[in-house]
Design brief:
By secondary structure, this protein is mainly β. It contains 1 helix and 28 strands. It is 3% helix and 44% strand. The longest helix has 12 residues. The radius of gyration is 20 Å and the shape is globular.
Amino acid sequence: MQRVIIPLIFILTALWSKAQTNSWQKLTTEPYAGKQDDITFVDRNTGWYVNGFGRIYNTQDGGKTWTKQLEQKGSFFRTLVFLDEKVGFVGTVGTDYFPNVTDTIPLYGTQDGGKTWKPVPYKGPYVKGLCAFDVVKEQYINHGKIDYKTHIYAVGRVGSPANIMVSHDDGTTWTSRSMQADCKMLFDIKMLDKNTGFACAATNEDITQSHALILKTTDGGQTWKKVYESNRPFETTWKVSFPSAKVGYVTIQSYNPDPNVKQQRVAKTTDGGETWTEINLLEEAGAREFGIGFIDENHGFVGTMNSGFETKDGGITWTKIDLGRACNKIRFYTDADKKVYGYAIGVNVFKWE
């Protein structure tokens, strides 16, 4: 039998070509004219997304088909999170901001995968609205075996007031706390562990006076310190992505009505969030930034009002790509085979694989 020897260069080329096949593909979903805000998955097949019509959708086949689980008129669903295929939570943006929104309950929970939802009680000051969740699983020894405690953090809202909600027992009980002394608007939160994390914020509820603001906590959200503030008015932060414990990115939004103010920027840290620098995205007055998501320290994506952008060098250069309009949330996951997949949502829903 003759042995066939395949040159190493062909093997490497084949592997490289396979690695380059990942791309964003638009999924078939119900039409929605505006920006849809959040999407989450617990595995490759099982996920949910929400929008401002008070609707929650579920997929069991990786986004090929979607089932509307809930339509609650008067609710503006802004953010959601699932701990597993059964237990999940959804946050509303609250009243007095968007038209036709009457729901004053900030937090709902489900125990059956989204089939039914109930208001979630909490202790502390009233929370008018929520914009983001984050989850930390803490490993511990439970009667001689490894187990996990699940900590859930939620912040909001756009338009003020600023509050945080926290659960340290898988969402069974919740407490709230005002953050009005630290900021006036809250948009996103990322916890590196149960104590250390970052909040995307703004200094003023009056956008004409507002600066973009990033806050850091080292005690689980009890206290916060300012680690970044822009020096321009009409600005807020929006979403955050930490591909590693040291490197993180935050989108900066500009609402300046002057058409000559064109530069769009992203804040970046390389020292675990202690210091931040501004990197340029592009010069385009209408390219307001929304979602951000990084696969690793260098490879990531930003959604803007008009399109998406990709970088493979940590934000030094950016390439325009199709992520639809107003891509607001970008989430990446790694499965058991160490393969990365992701989902993004704005006017449309996209899948990365």
